[in-house]
Amino acid sequence: MIRVVTDSTSDLVPADAARLGVDVVPLTVRFGDEQFLDAVELSADQFYSRLPDTPVQPSTSQPTPEQFAEVYRRHVAAGDSVVSVHISSKLSGTIQSASLAAQEFPDGAVRVVDSTTVSAGIQFLVRAALDDIAAGAGHDHVVGQMEQRRDRIVVYVLLDSLTYLQRGGRIGRAQGLLGGILKVKPLLRISEGEVHPEARVRSRQQGISKMVEMAAAQRPLEALGFFHCGAPELLALIEPRLRHDHPDVPMFSGQLGAVVGTYSGPGGVGVGLLRAG
Amino acid sequence: MPGAEAGSKLTVLREPTLEVGGEQVLAALRSALAWLQANQEEINDLNVFPVPDGDTGSNMYLTLRSAVEEAQEAAAPGSAASVLAAAAHGSLMGARGNSGVILSQILRGLAQGVGGQVRLDASRWAQGLREARVVAYKAVMRPTEGTILTVVGAAAEAATKAADESVDIVTVLEQAVRASHAAVERTTEQLQVLRDAGVVDAGGFGFAVLLEGMSRSIADPEAGQSAPSGPRRRSGEGRVQLPFGTDETLDTPRPSVRRGAAAVEMKHEGWGYCTEFLIHGPGLDTEGLREELGALGESALVVGDSDVVRVHIHTGEPAPLIAVASQRGRLSKLKVEDMSAQHHEVLERADTADVRSGQGQPATDTRRKQLGVVSVAPGGGFRDILVSLGADSIVEGGQTMNPSIEDLLNAVRSAHAENVVLLPNNGNVILTAQQVDGLVEDVAVRVVPTRNLPQGISALLALEPDGTLDANCTRMVTAIEHVHALEVTRAVRGSAVNGHDIKEGDVLGILDDQITEVGDDERTVIDAVLRGVVPAPELVTVYRGEQVGQELAEVLVEGLRGDFPDTEFELHVGGQGHYPYVLSLE
């Protein structure tokens, strides 16, 4: 049997992971000297409620190779093979730990795939792989499909402000999103493995409209995922519009976890889409 | 031809004027300018809207003044075609507001229509006016009858008809003037807004006045000379030394921005710096200035009137010259160019085969950025905001001071970019901005028709510096659809608009160019407009004008926050004149 493993930046919550039969290896979130296993010891809700008041900028670190090896060992010992899909290698070193761990196992029993995306983007790959496996696909085929699908994934995130991106020192390419004297809300796009500045808007409604328009412009879609950053009420602003535009497209919703949330801050909302092949 | 008038219905009681040359055309233009100046306020008052905005009379006057300034420097002062071509070019550079742009196109058409003739007869004048009509209509995207276009058309028709029957230029022009004024009277019935306000079209009236000034000068040259204009350059004292080749004739009707550059160096190589500027009065003594400044350089050209004097001097040391001049009045359009550098550039252009090192194009190109943005802004606050959002160059201007094409052109050049997006940020600057593209050879200029500052800011927010010109324009055009602008001002005159009976001094709330609310105070008007906006805006950005202090504005914004708890309000300094508040509704 083929097992799917991912990491906590997929934002697949433990309940969903258990239901789907997927292993989620947690990254580590640190607030100063305190550290937590992402989504295991610190839920996204807890994370966002803590974020505005923290005197120190939280930081995250990739799982150790041993964390991955432990999971792989269990499956390989049971005679299963593994597809391990992770956050873009350009955003985190997570995939290095996974690759290192995979070397322990002979004959490609554990295949590691760079998702080139994050959050809902990883979930598309996980969910589609489970469907492929259920349909009887072989190991190579599952990996091959992932590597094709990942190029059809785009994730948009509308941040409430640039504050956290700046605080985290990750402003880099998003420099162009600075609004100068005016307050702006940056809209980011994650594709081809990286975070790109997509637009700067002055109101949340403008940003949401933009995301909805971009989703419509990329039809036909195979799947949609939408998520919030510590502000579930924002989903009500985007979900009905997406359902209206894409009545037959499977959708899921969730919350952006601590790792990306460190840079997005609370009050963000986003949408991920998988274009049809 | 002499027999033509014998049987004519038109009686000529004086010697017919069969031909005019460059000198008379220049005098006619000066006379037109004097007439326009004398009627400037009256034309301004024909503004049907109670909002303070770019006044037609002032815009036409400033545009024609720029035309006359340049006509005074025509390459061949004796040639009517040369004088008109220079005037057309000058008017284009100086064109302000929509009426100024259309006037510049009328002059361009006139210059084209006379077809390079050194002396013009009556039929050439008629032809010139016909061409003026054609070119002017083309300048406007949706030509409307009851405007200056109609009046130019009437003048062209009357001139054509008169020229069929008479060889006398004065007769032809007088008929054109008469037809123009009659057409002006009819404009009231042709346009609803004019009928409502009970006035004639300002631009059309301005053109009739201008034509009358020209006609009077040609009919009576003495009257033309008494007009308040610059010194007569071609008087008996001998020709003022022109920096440009004086015998050069322009053979293309379309004026070239680099006119005569080659001639400068052929004559005056090694003279150091070519220094040009305008001195602004009032009360300038042109003769005195010519003597004083002429002593500081060579090849001095000092022309103008008591309000503005144009100086063009070649000197080895521009600094003392500028220092002296700045004591006589405010300086503008200062330009100092190293003539040896110019010379190289000219030579390089001429020598297309090989590209040399130094000032050549490739070296400059590598320094230019891919995409630049030029934006018009009326105040310091808006300027800072636009710059902070990525504008490369800001042109002063807005509601009551519409920038000229040349102002915009200079800003486009100073952006140092291969592609430039131009944001006019005012309805009366859009047409001016649209003229710029054809005037710069090596920059692609695209206008995103922003009608107000909130739209301009939205457009800039959509800027993607790495994107292409086309992609950015598309993004910007989409972005400006989503923002509403509420401009708050006080009525400068009583009027009846959109069913509102407006008294002078009333507070007007103008939502997206429509007077939506009229009231006694700003808070009430803003409140009423905001209540009518559906869906309610999520964010309202308030930009306070120069006459409103921070505290007063804060009081207003606090009040609005109380009235609209679901809307976020942001207060910034706009620094605009005449409009206490400009609000952006998103």
From TrEMBL, chain A:
Pfam families recorded: DegV (PF02645)
Endpoints of the signal sequence: none
Lineage: superkingdom: Bacteria
Keywords from the named record: Lipid-binding
GO molecular function, one term: lipid binding
PROSITE patterns, A to Z: DEGV
Coiled coil spans: none
NCBIfam families documented for this protein: DegV (TIGR00762)
UniProt name for this protein: DegV family protein
Automatic annotation (TrEMBL), chain B:
Annotated stretches, region: Disordered: 220-254
GO terms under biological process: glycerol metabolic process
Domain DhaL residue range list: 23-216
Organism domain of life: Bacteria
GO molecular function, one term: glycerone kinase activity
Name of the protein this chain belongs to: DAK2 domain-containing protein
Phylogenetic classification of the source organism: Bacteria, Bacillati, Candidatus Dormiibacterota, Candidatus Dormibacteria, Candidatus Aeolococcales
